[in-house]
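Predict the assembly for these two chains.
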Amino acid sequence: MSTIESNLDPNIQQLADQAKERLDQHTVETVRWHFDEATGCPFWLGKKSELNFDPLTEIKCFDDLKKFPLFEDEWLRGGPVERWRPKAYENEPTYVFETGGTTGIPKSRVVVHDFRIDYEMFSETLPEQYFPKRSNWLMLGPSGPRRLRLAVEHLCQFRGGICFCIDLDPRWVVKLIKKGWMDHLEEYKKHCIDQAITILTAGHDIKCMFATPKLLESLCLGLEDRGTTLKDCGVTGIFSGGTEFTPQWTRYCIEELFEGPPEESGIYMTPTYGNTLMGLACSKPVTAEDKYKISYYAPQPRAVTEVVSFDDHTQPVGYGETGRVKLYTLTKEFFIPGFLERDEGEHEAPFETYPWSGVSGVRPFHELASSTTVGVY
Amino acid sequence: MRIPVVRWGKPYESLEIQEVAHFLTGEPIATVDQANGGLVTRDLRKADKARNILREFTCDQLIDFVGRAADLYENETLPMGDGQQSPDDFVKQQSASTGLPEHMCRANMTKNSFVLRNMREILDALTRGLDLEILTRGYGVEQRGVILSYQAQAPVLGAVLPSNSPGVHTLWLPVVPLQMGLVLKPGSQEPWTAYRIAAAFGQAGIPPEVISLYPGGHDVGGSILTSCRRSMIFGSEKTIAQYAGNPRVQVHGPGFSKILLGDDCVDRWPEYIDAMAESVYINGGRSCINASGVWASRHTKEIAAALAERLGPIEVKPPDDPDCGLAAFTVAGVGPAVMNMVEQDLKQDGVTDCTAEYGPRLEEKERCSYLRPMVVHAASPDLDIAKKEFMFPFVSVVECPQEHMIQKIGPTLVGTAITDDDTWIDQLTGATNIDRLNIGNIPTNRLNWLQPHEGNLIDFLFRSRAVQTDRQLAGV
């Protein structure tokens, strides 16, 4: 990130410098933790001998992480899953969060506390007006191997509410699409939406919800079919996520499904960008004036996103320029010293709330786009 | 030029746009606003309105409007997005974005306007002379005094249109005169026809709010097919398989059209070589009605050699050259990939590339590629190449005994059988794997517009059912 020349406002630049300093310090501590025999996980301790440098002494700042080879998510496929559990946590209750799984063995990430920490931090970003504390939630999305439900339910509980959950199995959805069983797909979606509407209209005073964009759209249309709306049901705050979260979709959702921006409709939606490897990146508030542009900022220093050159992943592109998304995860439970995501986007400048690099216009990486099934739920 | 989404006649500027570029130079021609699937699903909840509006007119009035639109479409400058488009602009822009030679674009334009201009005769043929008032009202009395009922199955027809074959538009043109609206997803490289016809319809007097145009990605196509009770899609074999048997979707894919030479005529094969060459080569070999097979029990090597001599020397020419007969593959890598598929099939014993002596077939340019015509000889109908179709002038000349031909040819959109053998003609007439049957020396591409194509549109859009009443009904 140090290679980018920028003309940031001096105040923002000062905040960005402070954030960078925190990130450098956090990076050194995290690397030491993962490569210390007393705390690190078997995978990284084993990997240490393959490195041509000593991570304990030669990682002195964030940029030094580029000394590591790129993280390969294939390493996360298959067992034993314990090789990823840091020794420091070997006696703690441990979860496994899985990603993919539509083609062969899924990738697994062990989690002890991270999902709670990530979602508690995310909770701080939610506006109280639309996500009132102690209100009940509806989680409409995958629960199974992805364990997203665990995280959303914790978010709800952390804010004092009780969470209702409607499940959707994305692996079955991908299978239906690949088989061309579109009628089954529609019926499955309807099955999920019917359950959600039953819960929303059952007097549980649900004000907040998580839904994927496609399910949110189907929910709004399903409610409309029954002569009601999300607003009529009392929903005021929605958190959603996925790469199909485009400015056009967001505009359609706000203008046509919600019938106006939060101040008119009373419904606030916050897009997020996340995955099992990184956690959750928040977005800058999305407005019509900004053409519904969606800019995501990782929860630095626990995770970092860079937008790097398509030709050289060690070189971030300039602000406003397009590149591939590269992510880093730097928690005590999971260490990713640079992973090239299957997404691309534009490099966004730091601003007051998030004085570090962000990414906007996230979409499937153009060289992989044709082979990826996205936005399935 | 910016071309917006059109939602029931109203332009809608999307936050997502896609550029349409010249296939040779890469120069931008237009930007096309992209719809999203949800937008379509939501709009289609108001589809009934389109039919209600159109039922305020008689079918006869709408046929007159469409006839007027034929002239506007073919001869006048019409609005196109935020600009204007003359007929010449249309031809040049369509050629530039699809890779089709300009004279073929003009021919397709003539074909579309012919259908629009002759709508009355076409509907008369498709309905077998039915008084169209019966379609409007849903029932009526025939001259022989019997009550007939045809019930509309949908207020609109949805269509997911292709990018690479501007000739297919004739299939949806009769829909508006049947008092149904249109919901079209234009091909990403060929927005021109759908928008120009919509503009011509509007200027001719058809209310704009009965037509929606949704350029966009796969989710838009999916929404149209899911939300319209009747729709048509143009696509590959995979797409066809996905919707096969779905009564709501009419699928149009590869045609595997063929010419079959009967044993009684095959010894006179040189008399039919013109029809064979035309069937393979016309329209750049891109249509489902282009022949991809010539089947005969003998003389197949001589037929293949004669076709190769006719088609093999054909060269790539600039799209504005009136003699240009080949269309470009405008998507990077497609031409070489198709050539690779053909080469795999050529490896089988019994397959001969008869055009090999006329130079390389694949011609790659900076931004596109071409495949020059190919004629192969297949010594057996069981060889893989005998049932292949590609998007360029390609034909397999297949040796097969006449008695096995009907069974071995597989699905065949247009089957031209050159024979006077009544017994075989009887068998061919009953062969359900042949859609359009031509008997005699008729090129596969020469369609009679008074005949249904890939299923009768009337049968698809209306259901014949019973209505009984004790009311006095006027005869028609």
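Chain B touches chain A at residues 14-16, 34, 36, 38-39, 41-42, 45, 219, 222, 225-226, 241-243, 246 (CB under 8 Å). The longest helix of chain B spans residues 59-75.
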